[in-house]
Design a protein that fits this description.
This protein is an alpha/beta fold. Helices cover 34% and strands 22% of the residues. It has 13 helices and 20 strands. It starts with a strand and ends with a helix. The structure holds flavin-adenine dinucleotide.
Length: 431
């Protein structure tokens, strides 16, 4: 079959791999001039490794992603350094990435609350019954089972940070379950950065006969009634395919395929999601003297964003010509004021956060900053969300859709992009 894939992110490339292996004629259309999608990276002259635009790592349990890397023969390029994640309590930072560290965390005292925190964590890790958890909100469930104090201190800042004031009370408990279930303290990356993996994967696809068309934004997809094939249009050209797999956001699918039935389009447009904004800094000096990697920043303590990540406390600054790489990022609604500020104005907002991590920090430590944003960063799963998941096979014959809006109950991630890309490929092969 002649098959088109829209998007050369990890999902689109995984699907292309399986479909090409099965002997089909595959063309991948990608709007950007490089592969990798949300997990792509950039490189400065003098850096051996790329830096992801949005901080990325793999978990040790990411079996779909790590399985694909193994199939491609690159497992020796996956590394699992041991970075430190820290929690904020009374203006101090405490490591919080093992059971022992959680026991030693002073915020919960030594009695009942700590026990409750531990039992709730254990229950969520052991249960597989996410379906009953999606019927309640994190807010209701955690207040009831973890208790007011534990929820306020440990979980509420996370849901507020991720989903903002508008949605945090509405997010369902299956989302929290999936986070706890899928995460490990060991965090992995690919030698050279995620972009290196994406580039190698793209090269492999080309060797397999896949046509990869970069800098080619698709504008419209429609079904030709005479032939039943799908017509893909860019600004300047058009081409017909027997099958098309779209891997963009739901709203982008709705814009691309206006002939989808109204009820399907309505469902796509009603799905809620968060945008994200990340500023990347290259610094002359290490920011966290203790070598901490991931700082969860509670907004109620006055921090300007949700996370501060010192990438070079995870992989060595040697790979970046001695630069120290720090991310400051947040999930926001697309109309948040941060998206209207200039890079210089945002820098003014974010810099006090750097100083709170290291009081010695001075603005002249900053060598360069980069600003990245995306409108589609995090689906928002409301109560009974499983009813709203768009099926991979759309009502338009021959048209398939596989995106992070459909990996639920799992939270988004490259691991699940690979899983859904390959699932879509199996459906196309069986069609
Ligand atoms: C802030 C942030 C942090 C994250 N952290 C992690 C992490 O630590 N670990 C992890 O595994 N995952 C993480 N993720 C999630 C991960 O990046 C995504 O789940 C994954 O990359 C999604 O892959 P995808 O192929 O489904 O979609 P995408 O990567 O979004 O790929 C879609 C592609 O389609 C292209 N496209 C869109 N419209 C068109 C068009 N009209 N024509 C042609 N091409 C088009 C886009 O340019 C893009 O390349 C993070 C995401 C964000 C935003």
């Amino acid at each position: 079959m002649k098959i088109a894939i829209i998007g050369a992110g990890f999902g689109g490339m995984a699907a292309a791999y399986d479909l090409a292996k099965a002997g089909h004629d595959i063309t991948v259309f990608e709007a950007e001039d490089h592969a990798g999608g949300l997990a792509s990276g950039f490189k400065e002259p003098g850096w051996d490794w790329s830096v992801e635009k949005f901080y990325h790592h793999w978990f040790a349990g990411d079996k779909h992603m790590l399985g694909l890397v193994e199939e491609l023969g690159w497992s020796d390029k996956v590394i699992f350094p041991r970075p430190y994640t820290v929690m904020h309590y009374q203006d101090k930072w405490y490591p919080f990435d093992s059971i022992l560290k959680a026991i030693l965390f002073p915020g919960l005292g030594w009695g009942f609350n700590k026990l409750r925190f531990g039992l709730v964590g254990l229950f969520l890790r052991l249960t597989n019954n996410w379906y009953s958890l999606e019927k309640v909100t994190v807010d209701e469930w955690m207040r009831k089972w973890a208790g007011e104090k534990v929820y306020r201190l440990m979980w509420e800042p996370l849901v507020i940070g991720k989903f903002g004031d508008k949605y945090y009370k509405q997010v369902n408990m299956a989302w929290m379950w999936a986070r706890i279930k899928a995460r490990t303290t060991r965090l992995g990356t690919f030698e050279g950065g995620f972009q290196n993996f994406a580039d190698l994967f793209a090269e492999r696809l080309v060797e397999m006969g896949v046509e990869l068309r970069f800098s080619t934004r698709i504008k419209h997809i429609s079904r030709q009634s005479e032939t039943g094939s799908l017509l893909i249009e860019t600004e300047t050209a058009s081409q017909s395919f027997e099958r098309v797999l779209v891997t963009t956001s739901p709203s982008s699918l709705a814009r691309l395929v206006t002939s989808l039935p109204e009820s399907y389009l309505k469902n796509l447009l009603e799905l809620k999601s968060m945008a994200a904004l990340v500023m990347v800094f290259s610094l002359k000096h290490q920011l966290s003297n203790q070598g901490y990697y991931w700082f969860n920043l509670p907004k109620n303590a006055g921090f300007p964003c949700l996370a501060l990540v010192e990438h070079t406390n995870y992989v060595s600054p040697e790979h970046f010509g001695g630069d120290h790489i720090v991310y400051m990022g947040d999930y926001l609604e697309p109309d948040h004021e941060y998206f209207k500020l200039s890079q210089a104005e945002l820098l003014e907002r974010f810099m006090p956060g750097l100083k709170r991590i290291n009081p010695d920090f001075q603005p002249d430590w900053i060598k360069k900053t980069w600003l990245f944003s995306t409108n589609y960063a995090q689906p928002v799963p409301l109560v009974n969300h499983s009813r709203n998941i768009p099926p991979i096979q759309t009502p338009l014959p021959g048209l398939y859709f596989a995106s992070m809006s459909q990996v639920y109950p799992w939270d988004r991630g490259t691991n699940f992009a690979v899983e859904i890309g390959r699932r879509a490929a199996r459906m196309i092969l069986g069609s």
